[in-house]
Amino acid sequence: MDLIQIAQETFQTEAEALLTMTERLDQNFLDVIETIFSTKGKLIVTGVGKSGLVGAKMAATFASTGTSSFFLHPTEALHGDLGMIGKDDTLLAISSSGESEELTKILPHIKRFEIQLIGLTGNADSTLARYADVWIDISVEKEACPLNVAPTTSTTLTMALGDALAVALMHKRGFRKEDFASFHPGGSLGKRLFVKIKDLMRTENLPVIKENTPLKEAVVAMSEGKLGTVLVVDENDAFTALLSDGDLRRALMREDFSMEQPVVDYATQHPKSYSNTELLASEALEIIENERIQLLPITDEAGKIIGVLHIHDLVNAGIKSR
């Protein structure tokens, strides 16, 4: 058989199982949502083998979308980790057969704790289904595996069900992108929503010179500052102009060019600057991109330079515009 055809049949088999599940959702799904939503403690997910791997992913998805959760392996639970379960927790157990030995051994202890037990199983007559306070049917007509043995369709269905539970809970909790970002401060969304100008701006060894500084000294300051720019201030140290390497090249073309002339004669007057250090770095990047500049000087309320924000610093920090 053509391998492309085999792959297509795999997708088809698993897609059909997902579509069947959409029609099979009933009150049990809503009861599971309500059980998890009303849990005062943590949602603990457990399972063995492939179900355990799916369970670990589900726990991670729950945890990052507003439902406090972690994965507990049944074997580890039997050897001391049952102590991780508190009286306000809920256990979500996954087993296609509902008879996984390692899992069924911990079920009597879970009932002893008198906590809610949610079961995901494909066997209504199984030990897991009997012990569960509420359970969802995850049975499939067939596995995509040609031997109908290896968990393929069943694991895809279970993982999708976990996503459906997590997404439904996000809606029920009113979970926003700001909440998501708070759980992912190192991700692109977290950086976009939380990193501010003050977190990234350079504040030391800035190339700041007076307006009447000779151009030749300004060139030295530009080289030492390693920003391709010098910042020009007046006698009161207020920011008034900026000399970039582009300004310097244009100055060289002027007939009145002189290295002894004051730098202010060749600098860009009244360049773009910003004084709110609480501005999000992603918004600052938009300003830089819209103004087509590389450096954004940051000033205090008196107009004195307190830092600079360079586009390279933003890019290196993984900041993206909105």
Q: How confident is the prediction overall: mean pLDDT?
A: 88
Order of helices and strands: HHEHEHEHEHEHHHHEHEEHEHEEH
CATH architecture label name of the largest domain? 3-Layer(aba) Sandwich
SS elements, strand count: 11
Count up the domains.
2
Order of strands, widest sheet: 2-1-3-4-5
Report the CATH topology name of the largest domain.
Rossmann fold
> What percentage of residues falls in helices of 4 or more residues?
40-55%
Dominant shape: elongated
The percentage of residues in β strands lies in 15-25%
List the helices and strands and how they pair.
Elements lengths: L2 H22 L2 H11 L5 E5 L1 H16 L4 E3 L2 H5 L11 E5 L6 H12 L3 E6 L5 H5 L2 E4 L15 H21 L3 H7 L4 H7 L2 H4 L7 E3 L4 H11 L3 E5 L5 E6 H8 L15 E2 L11 H11 L3 E5 L5 E6 H6 L6
Parallel strand pairs: 1-2, 1-3, 3-4, 4-5, 6-7
Antiparallel strand pairs: 7-8, 8-9, 10-11
Helix pairs in contact: 1-7, 2-7, 3-7, 8-9
Family: Belongs to the SIS family. GutQ/KpsF subfamily.
GO biological process, one term: carbohydrate derivative metabolic process
GO molecular function, one term: arabinose-5-phosphate isomerase activity
Explained architecture:
With 322 residues, this protein is an alpha/beta fold. The protein folds into two domains: 3-175, Glucose-6-phosphate isomerase like protein, domain 1 (Rossmann fold, 3-Layer(aba) Sandwich), CATH 3.40.50.10490; 197-316, CBS-domain. The protein contains 14 helices and eleven strands. The strands form three sheets. The chain has a five-stranded parallel sheet, sandwiched between helices. Strands 6-7-8-9 form a four-stranded mixed sheet. Strands 10-11 form a two-stranded antiparallel ribbon. The longest helix has 22 residues, at 3-24. The radius of gyration is 31 Å and the shape is elongated.
